[in-house]
TrEMBL record, chains A, B:
GO-annotated cellular components: cytoplasm; endomembrane system
Name of this protein: Sorcin
Protein location: Cytoplasm; Endomembrane system
Single GO MF descriptor: calcium ion binding
Alphabetically ordered keywords of this record: Calcium, Cytoplasm, Membrane, Metal-binding, Repeat
Membrane-crossing residue ranges in chain numbering: none
Species, as recorded: Triplophysa rosa
Principal location listed in the UniProt entry: cytoplasm
Residue stretches making up the EF-hand domain: 92-127
Superkingdom assignment: Eukaryota
InterPro entries: EF-hand-dom_pair, EF_Hand_1_Ca_BS, EF_hand_dom
PROSITE patterns documented for this protein: EF_HAND_1, EF_HAND_2
Length: 190, 190
């Protein structure tokens, strides 16, 4: 899955302390226009921006829930919004995912069906039972079809939940134990 | 939390086998108009219907994700859509939640803030740490405010996740153990 760098600290020398370097970046003008005077992108602003860039296809509004989810995943400073470095990282990740999605969507319909989604999830290295895959597909599809924004929400959640599970499965026995408060905190924020 | 009957089988004699009785119900005409010729309401149709009924306030579109979540919670026949009985049950539940929400929203702003949300969650009987409450509020708010549709999504998820946890915590030691596939199936479908 092309989400390298997620959860890692921002790369050293990435320009965060050098506004001049940021402003030379071709993406910066776009970021600044969307972010407005506070220099930060909220979930609503991210939705506007991804809709305008037509990430969802057909100029449909990009799913706001997916935007909140992505900001929550990348929000290292707990600001509930996104600075330029986080935005740039997200843009690269989303572009990678869009390419992956288009390669799965063989009939170029703009959506993937359950068979294509099964293949995509397996190719990311997840080993899930047919029942679990069926639940996931049911949850993220409309009329049996999964759009790009729902595909992204699915990938982000699957990755985050797998990470949460792995951290509590240190002895590698395939089981993870949660206390109630920990369980609610982990699962409600995703 | 006013979500009685959720998860329970449909009440006996509820009229499901008696179209005449259903049609006498004042809500039936509305349901039939929204459901169209298939007699079932999809998440998109539910969104249209709850937006028109102004559940979200200010005639903003009701959050589609919350609609999917509610259908998923009530979908006993795994059809991904909702028949009249499920719709009627949901309508009653939502009306109860709307009243609860309005009683929390003391300044009548149409949204609740973090302090009001903390009180609401405690009054439902949940005992969560300040960190967990802070994560939840962050996840479901926009600019620190929680709208009715996000409040509903939060209540539905919290209830479902607590139920899932309780089922795996039979010995009541405050811990629940999950296998990976089970964990993913439970948490991805909510």
């Amino acid at each position: 899955m092309n989400f390298q760098g997620y959860g890692a600290p921002a790369a050293v020398g990435y320009g965060s302390g050098f506004p001049g370097q940021q402003q030379q970046d071709p993406l910066y003008g776009y970021f600044a226009a969307v972010a407005g005077h506070d220099g930060q992108i909220s979930a609503e602003e991210l939705q506007t921006c991804l809709t305008q860039a037509n990430f969802s296809g057909g100029y449909r509004p990009f799913n706001l829930e997916t935007c909140r989810l992505m900001i929550s995943m990348l929000d290292r400073d707990m600001s509930c919004s996104m600075g330029f470095n986080e935005f740039k990282e997200l843009w690269a990740v989303l572009s990678g995912w869009k390419q992956h999605f288009m390669s799965i969507d063989r009939d170029m319909s703009g959506t993937v069906d359950s068979q294509e989604m099964n293949l995509a999830v397996s190719s990311m290295g997840y080993r899930l039972s047919p029942q679990t895959m069926s639940c996931i597909i049911k949850r993220f599809s409309s009329n049996g079809k999964i759009s790009f924004d729902d595909y992204v929400a699915c990938c982000v959640k699957l990755r985050s939940l797998t990470d949460l599970f792995s951290k509590r499965n240190q002895v590698q026995q395939g089981m993870a134990a949660f206390q109630y408060d920990d369980f609610i905190q982990c699962t409600m924020s995703i």
